[in-house]
Write a structure and sequence with these properties.
Farnesyl Diphosphate Synthase; globular
Length: 309
């Protein structure tokens, strides 16, 4: 990861000072670096001995960071990772344009691998992520959204880059088709579990631990699994309360909404869904050669179920 950070620092260099300032602001804000770590772990598990894993790990972090810059503008977010979002600090225009810079820089860096398969994976992933963003926008304030549609969005918007990161590790390592598919399944399942737990934390955590404002998802009209389950399991009165909050995005009843989500067992439904995805990830990781890197992949999936921020 230190080698990846050195690549990131070098490739953020730009002749336009604001580009580097905004990029460094968000990249240095304490993110978990899960996607690049996933690529490195898969490469380690499969015995990769080259150097492109550092470059491509930085690429996936740049793509992820670009999506964050654009997301925060779309969502009008003001807090991420415990401090002001880039759009709150620098303004929307700078955030959008620097996000564009990071996307284009990522594609420049992909060329260093001299591998069309690598380009295909990352280009497809970036396209699917954009589609997921649009689908989520279309689903805003829609109380009729069901679990299947919700999972489709998060597997496109969030899990796709996890999937691509793991698949890239397999491709770099020269893995056969079956092993590449297992790595991709691991990444998709891990990313799905990560997002479901993130949605649970919006109703169980606190702003200081999460680094974001509680209730942001509801304010934005995002229909997440805890709300879907609460509307399915609650009384008529509880369903009406949640439905109205989803439709309006009003936070006046946030405390009551949180109580409904907790009282109906909706959080347990969401945690069970995340646990099922974590088990799917661990099953996929079991197909990799037995070594400390593969064991770390299993532990990473298991650790999501204890995630608190």
């Amino acid at each position: 990861m230190h080698a990846v950070d050195r690549v990131i620092a070098r490739r953020l260099d730009s002749g336009v000072p604001l580009v580097g300032e905004v990029s460094r602001y968000i990249i240095s804000s304490g993110g978990k670096r899960l996607r690049p770590a996933l690529l490195l772990l898969v490469c380690g598990a499969l015995g990769y001995r080259g150097e492109q894993h550092h470059n491509l790990a930085a690429v996936v972090e740049f793509i992820h960071t670009a999506t964050l810059l654009h997301d925060d503008v779309v969502d009008e977010s003001t807090l991420r990772r415990g401090r002001a979002t880039a759009n709150a600090h620098f303004g929307n225009p700078a955030s959008v344009l620097v996000g564009d810079f990071l996307y284009s820089r990522a594609f420049q860096m992909m060329l260093d691998a001299h591998d069309m398969r690598v380009m295909e994976i990352l280009a497809d992933a970036t396209n699917v992520i954009a589609e997921g963003e649009v689908m989520q926008l279309m689903n805003m304030h829609d109380p009729e959204l069901d679990e299947r549609a919700y999972l489709h969005v998060i597997r496109s918007k969030t899990a796709k880059l996890f999937e691509a990161s793991a698949r890239l590790g397999a491709v770099l390592s020269g893995a056969d088709g079956a092993l590449e598919a297992a790595c991709a399944s691991y990444g998709q399942a891990l990313g799905t579990a990560f997002q479901v737990i993130d949605d649970v934390l919006d109703y169980t955590g606190n702003a200081q631990e999460l680094g974001k404002n509680l209730g942001d998802d509801l304010r934005e009209g995002k229909v997440t699994l805890p709300l879907i389950a609460a509307m399915r399991l609650g009384t008529a009165e509880q369903r009406a309360l949640v439905r109205k909050a989803v439709e309006t995005g009003a936070l006046e009843e946030l405390e009551r909404i949180v109580a409904v989500v907790q009282e109906t067992g909706a959080l347990e439904v969401a945690r069970d869904a995340a646990a099922a995805e974590a088990r799917r990830a661990m099953s996929a990781a079991a197909q990799l050669p037995s070594n400390p890197h593969a064991q770390a992949l299993v532990q990473l999936a298991a650790s999501l179920l204890q995630r608190r921020n």
